[in-house]
Structure formats: structure tokens, C-alpha cells
Amino acid sequence: MNYQSKDHQKGTLFISVIDIGIGLTQENKEKIFQEFFQVNSSSTQSKGSLGLGLAIVDKIVRLLNGHVSIESQLGEGTAFTIELPVEADSTKTWLDFFPKVTSKKILYIGKKTPRQDYVVDALSHLGFNVSHSNQIDTYSKDLFKSEKVILDLTEEKQKKLLLNDKNLSNLQEKIILLASIFETEKQHELYEKFSQHTILYIPIKLKKLLSALSGEIENSSLQVPNPSKDSIPPGIKLLITEDDFDNQLLMKYFLEPFDANLHFALNGVDALKVLSENKNFDMIITDLHMPVMDGYELVHQIRKNKSNSHTPIIVLTADALSTQVSELSKQKNCSALTKPIEKSELFKLISEIHHS
């Protein structure tokens, strides 16, 4: 990131993102900002879809009167550079748009990281009296004198101390936990023992953290699913076809607490192979934009096979207005969900299909 000033008030902000990937041909460079563009412009190639991300970036930058440029070399990588015209105001920072607070003593527990620097610096700027400790010390005066304690649980050592130290149970009302959304096993234990804690998930949103510090948030809305309250059938057998590993992790986070029997495939060809070896799936969940064989062709192939022709299918897409998606949704035993996937919507649809 770089800022070049033309005078004291106007200038240009440059933001560059560089990778050392496969690089782009000239043809692909010209098309890369198209929605759901795939490298080599074919859904049957071995490279993945770029989805909506770059298309959205390009539109936002244009709305800000900016420009996105690309430099790429095949086999060496690609550099994207965003140029944004800005008007500098030396009297304000982005934090000045948040309300100031009267001095409130806060203790941040966790090793020194960019995340810790961000939280401590932001809260200090807003008027909080913030101190920092690398680890939990239940005999520390700061722990008891602080009005709120922010505890970073991304370290294994901190989790063990929190679970095993009886003294901390007396401090539940003042502790705010920072946790990773994917650590389901540990989070189950934490919810059972520290159900009164406020839990915020990384990446941290300052507005939500400020609400937690003021007591406006008493419990996180992103709690680990409770099988007794939600209606996913325990042990349901699902085939999930998704080429993005982050989305695979999200599905595991949503469904594993219910002992769901999950099988994953990276594309349509992999999915058909799994189905040929095991035909007893309760449901198939598939992305539509994938390499090698996309979701549209996968649904077509599944319906051609008598053994799986009646298996319910849920298709996932960010292209909700597509005519093809609309046509798929009209098919028997085929439903569509729009990305980003909401846990409640996914659970509701799976439950409705299972009980229909």
C-alpha cells in the first residue's frame, strides 16, 4: 500500500496484491473481471472459477472513480494494483468516526500479534485504558481490577487454562472471548463451561467489539449449533461437491456437530466417482461453478443415473438471478441456496427436504 500526494489535500492511494501463481495469458487478462470467469474461459478446464470477487472489486473501484490494473507473467504470477483518488484530511483518522468513551480499564490477554496491535491501538485511541498480558494469570491484579477482559483463544495454551482454571468461572460476566469459527470441538467445551461469556469470532469487527465492551451484546449469535435445538437429522449422509476449501471447512463447521456423515468432492467428475462407489446418500449439495465438470452438468448426469435419480440435490450459487439456476430449482428434488450461505437457511432447507 502506498500514498502519493499531489498537494496537501489530494492524492492517490495505491493498493497492490501480488501472487506467485500460474499467471495469466493476455486473453484471460482481458476477461478476468467478468462474473464467474474461469481461467481458459471454459468450465471443463482444470483451473477453478474466479467467482464474483474480482468483478465486485472492479465495480466498487469504478464507483470510487478509481482504476484496477493487472501485470502478469505466465508461470510467474500476477500483480493487481488499485488506484484510488483520495482527499486527505490530516485532522481525522477512521477511528474518529466512532464515539469516544470515558476511561474504562480493559485487559487484553494474548500474545503480541497484528490482531492484538489493532485492538489495543484502536481501543486506546477511543479513550479506553488498555493493558496487555501474554497469558492468563488468575492472580494478576489487572485481571480483577479490569472492567472487561478480552481473551484471545487462538492459542492452545489459553484454551487449556480457560477450561481448567476454576478461578476464572467467577469472572464470566467480564470476559470477552475471541475465537476461531472452525474450532468446533474446543468451542463445545467452552460453551458448556462458560455459557455466560460473550464470544466474538475472528476477524474482529470493531463495532461489535465496542458493543460487547458496553454490555450491549451478552452472547454471540454465532454459537456452535445445538443438536437439541436445531433440526438437522443426526447422522445424515451428505455428499458435498465444492472446489473451494474454505467453503468445505464452513460446511464441516455447520454440520459436524450433528454427527453428519460428510463426503467431499472437488468437482463433478469426483462426485460421480464417489456416487458410483456409494449410492446411499440422503442428499447431495453442490456448487455450480467448478472446474473439470460444473454443477449444471453434474445434476444432469445424476438424474440420468437410475440409482441416484431421486436423490435430493441442493445447488449453491452466488448467481441467484441466472436463468439456469431458476430452471434447476423447478426440477423435482432440486433446490437452490444463494451464497454466502446462512446456517439457518441451510438447516431449514435440509430439514424440509429430509421430512418431505
What's the short story on this structure?
With 356 residues, the chain is an alpha/beta fold. It has helices at residues 26-31, 53-63, 114-125, 141-145, 156-164, 184-193, 206-213, 245-255, 268-277, 295-304, 323-330, 343-355; strands at residues 2-5, 10-18, 67-73, 77-87, 105-109, 129-133, 148-152, 175-179, 198-201, 237-241, 261-265, 283-287, 313-317, 334-338. It folds into three domains: 2-87, Heat Shock Protein 90 (2-Layer Sandwich); 94-213, Response regulator (Rossmann fold, 3-Layer(aba) Sandwich), CATH 3.40.50; 237-355, Response regulator (Rossmann fold).
Order of helices and strands: EEHHEEEHEHEHEHEHEHEHEHEHEH
Helix-strand makeup class: alpha/beta
What is the CATH superfamily label of the largest domain? Response regulator
Fraction in beta strands? 15-25%
Strand order of the largest sheet: 6-5-7-8-9
Rounded to the nearest angstrom, the distance between the terminal CA atoms is 53 Å
For the report, how would you describe the main beta sheet? Answer: 5 strands, parallel
Q: Give average pLDDT, whole number.
A: 77
CATH topology of the largest domain: Rossmann fold
Count of all domains: 3
Gyration radius (Cα, Å) is 25 Å
Can you tell me the CATH architecture of the largest domain?
A: 3-Layer(aba) Sandwich
Give helix % range: 25-40%
Rough shape? flat
Number of helices in the DSSP assignment: 12
By DSSP, the count of extended strands is 14
The top level CATH class name of the largest domain:
Alpha Beta
Low-confidence runs (pLDDT<50, min 5 residues)? 41-46, 217-230
